Amino acid sequence: MGDQKxxxxxxxxxxxxxxxxxxFFLPLFAAAGVAVTLNAPVWLQYxxxxxxxxxxxxxxxxxxxxxxxxxGVRALLIGFAKWRxxxxxxxxxxxxPIAIGYAAAGIYALIVGPTPGMIVPLTAPALLVTVLNxxxxxxxxxxxxxxxxxxxxxxxxxxxxxxxxxxxxGMLVWHIPTFFIQGLSGTALLLFMVSxxxxxLSFTIVMTWLFNHTGGSLxxxxxxxxxxxxxxxxxxxxxxxxxxxxxxxxxxxxxxxTLLPAPRDRAKA
Length: 269
Fold this sequence. Notes:
By secondary structure, the protein is mainly α. It has one domain. 75% of the residues lie in helices and 0% in strands. The longest helix is centred in the last third of the chain and has 28 residues, at 186-213. The chain is globular. It starts with a helix and ends in a 10-residue tail after the last helix.
């Protein structure tokens, strides 16, 4: 009986990974909500929020350990040490999401008109705080799971495009509880949900393209994920509108990279 769980994980590693990611996320996310509701110390609120973001890595490490032991876990995490890539990929990962964030502000200004404070002034200390704030509440906690564990296994069976869609859908389900803490309702909430889905799926396609061109570098994946999250903080416009514009821009970018030649050796499990 003791080895039934490892056998189940071995038979259905991807399904087990997605299920465990959600099962770990829900109580941790609820704990974060309780901490905020009770006005707990700021450090405790941040800690519970950060821990919930690490649920994909927790799931990936458990399934990997069941499949390949500690050596497999080390191999999973080694992607964060893949830093020797062409400088253009660092520029792409770090600068592109920020550029899209500011482009969204420009489009908003053209449609609605510029508003005071639309561009958030970021001094060096403020930028550092923003980066550190997002770093541990997303990219570092998620990428070992999404791109480190799931994506290579999906690409061993499917095309990069189809793998991206499957991964994106799994990530979308994982994010569903976060939809209801945005302070939105009615049409605004519906627009947010649709925009989030389009943005996430499109961004996942772009991330797969980056991942495959950098030899499976989780460092670059985490950098681009971080840049995307930060890009939503540098502009102060209505969130649902901002996300709708960003979704459209990433949809165009996803279409472009899908038409570009794929690397000969894409990252597989």
